Amino acid sequence: MKSNRKRSVRFRRRSISLLVLALLVVVPVISQEWLVPADRQGRLSTFAFNDSIEKAGLQLYNLNCLSCHGNPGKGNYQQLIPPPGDPATEKIQRNRDGEIFFKIMEGRGQMPSFKNTLSSGDIWAIVAYIRSFNSGYVQTVMPEITSGAYPGALIAITLRLAAEKESVIMKVSAIRDNTSVPVVGAGVKLFVKRTFGLLPLDEEKITDDNGMATFGIPPDLRGDTTGNIRVSARFTDEEKFGTAAKDTVLQAGLKVIPVSLVKDRAMWNTLRKAPWWILLSYGLGVILVWGFIIVVMLKLRDIFIIGEFTEKENKREA
Amino acid sequence: MGGKKNKNKAENTDIQQTLEASRRDFLKKAGISGAAVLSGAAAVLAGYRHEKSKNKGEFVKVLTTDNKLVKIAAEEVEGYEPGLKELQKRGREGIPGKKWVMIIDLSKCRNARKCIEACQSAHHLRPYEYHINTLVMQESVNTPAYFMPKPCQHCDNPPCVSVCPVDATFKRQDGVVLIDNERCIGCRFCIAACPYSARMFHWEEPVNAQADKDKEYDIELNVPQKKGTISKCLFSSDRLRENQLPYCVSACPNGVYYFGDENEDAVTNGTTKETVKLSELLKQNGGYRLMPELGTQPRVYYLPPKNRIFDFDQDKPREEDLII
User: Fold this and answer.
1) How far apart are CA A51 and CA A132, in angstroms?
2) Lowest mean pLDDT among A267-276, A277-286, B8-17, B221-230
3) What average pLDDT does range B147-156 have in this prediction?
4) Which residue is closest to A195 within chain B, CA to CA?
5) pLDDT value of residue B52
6) How crowded is residue B145: how many other Cβ atoms within 10 Å of its Cβ?
């Protein structure tokens, strides 16, 4: 009985260590393979790649990719771990268009994500440039019918503030032949414009049956001196719904009155902003020292005058 | 005698005749060339008028220095290069309404040194002259080493400015601490006062001294650099004036730097260009500042080197990088 339990414990231990070993073997294999979600693999460019697009891609590549991946076909990429690899090699070229697109967009580990830096058109231009090193590549362009969910229609986005200023209500409609149809099921995002970029407001929303989506406003959102914020609304899937965007100003933020960092009196500030005590003590010190010197000079003058006077008196007496 | 006179007379008339002929000739030629010149001038004038009238009625939109959009007739627009006086004035004042802030995420730094290179090329420095440097930090034997980029902290209570005897270094309303190389006397009090060792001194002739000789001195770029004066990190004030991220921030390949305006409560990552909420970023990652006990109140925040995405040992820095 005892030995039996011992055996079972040993067996359990062995099975656990086996499992750990198996995991150790499997984990690096998984981490080496960069899997792209199945629904994103088949993504296609809406436009055919041509010389001018490849040229634009070359410029974008040199700006964003060259520093790590080197010149395609030359193999002069950076020696990093894991190695970035040369885009002209078979390893990268056997990816589908959608897979390369996804990898540039999302990034992984040391490879940065470019979704905030490059538009989808820019990324497709880079894909076009990478493909220009593959002589056997034949492009499949996204069929015309699916490229626009509302073909020929003018997409209009309107934004308005809810009554309590707690949320922004977005309405998306497609206008064609003077009739307005709500755009249903479109992923939309709302951003606040900041000095160096766009700050996402709430998460991505999907428009409902009325083409409406509601974005919450955090209570501590900062606006300008009058509480205004500059917002920008756009589609997540620009290939399907187009690049329609709406930029407007809403009075939805806190009023922020900027305070100059040099307004207070301080040791480090300019003479006019020096602390009172330093101005006073320095001023008094100067007055005291000069006053003392002047008093001494006056006394010396007095002594001189008295001396002259007594000399005259002595002469007269003599 | 008389015959001689006659002969002379005859010669005189001959000369007179030829002179007259040449005068006629000259007048003729002058008339032709004059007409040619006149018609040429007329053509040039017509061309000039045409060029001028092409832009007439056309207006261009121009942004004034106080951020107002105005329309100006296209023919009146002229290129403008600010002179020393204006560069000094705007450099001293700073950008109103801004409070610049930098966040350095130590968990992402792997000593690529791209920030240093970008900074040195922008400010004309040698490879061993630093406005920003990455230090190797090993706090104790048992704690892991990490890399720490260290620019000027742009303190809100800057000791370096307090000690300057000639008002050469100063703080601006947007928080940046700058140095005026035109005023600096090279006493190096500020180097002694700075607890972060953020300042450098030009002991030798700056690297591009010959090429920069005729350039107008830009207080927001410290170019041309001057021998015998101090130089320091400027938060790339010249770039901020154009609403662009600092040189180091946009050069980083690893997403270490965030930069933004504290008044907007937003910072943007220089690599991914992702904009996040400043207060949330600091709160969620345990942000801190260097040497808070000194009360200098830096404008540079650090995020601790936790969950690092690389192994320190795997990417050993080069030998020369370890000597700090």
Assistant:
1) 9
2) B8-17
3) 96
4) B243
5) 62
6) 13
Of B258 and B4, the one with more pLDDT? B258
- H helices present in chain B, as ranges: 2-55, 84-93, 114-122, 159-163, 189-193, 237-240, 247-251, 278-285, 319-322
How confident is the model over B59-70, as pLDDT tens digits?
888 777 677 788
- In this model, does residue B17 exceed pLDDT 60? yes
Among partner residues B162, B167, B260, which is closest to A194 by beta-carbon distance?
B260
Asked if residues B240 and B227 have their Cβ atoms less than 8 Å apart, the reply is no
Interface residues of B toward A, Cβ cutoff 8 Å, are 96-99, 114, 156-159, 161-162, 167, 170-175, 243-245, 253-255, 259-261, 263-266, 268-269, 271-277, 279, 309-310, 314-315
Listed residue (A263, A264, A267) closest to B164, CA to CA? A267
CA of residue B154 relative to chain centroid, distance: 19
B312 Cβ neighbours under 8 A, 6+ residues apart: B144, B145, B146, B147
Reference A70, options A61, A81, A59; nearest CA is A61
Distance CA B116, CA B110 (A): 13
Q: Are A110 and B309 in contact (CB under 8 A)?
A: yes
| Model pLDDT for residues A129-153, shown as the tens digit of each residue | 999 998 888 888 876 534 456 777 7
Q: Could you tell me which residues of chain A have a Cβ less than 8 Å from any Cβ in chain B?
A: 67-68, 81, 109-110, 112-114, 116-117, 192, 194-200, 220, 222, 256, 258-263, 266-271
A256 close to A223: Cβ distance less than 8 angstroms: yes
Query: What is the tens place of the pLDDT at every residue in A243-258?
Result: 778 899 999 999 999 9
- Give just the sign of the alpha carbon dihedral A292, A298, A300, A306: negative
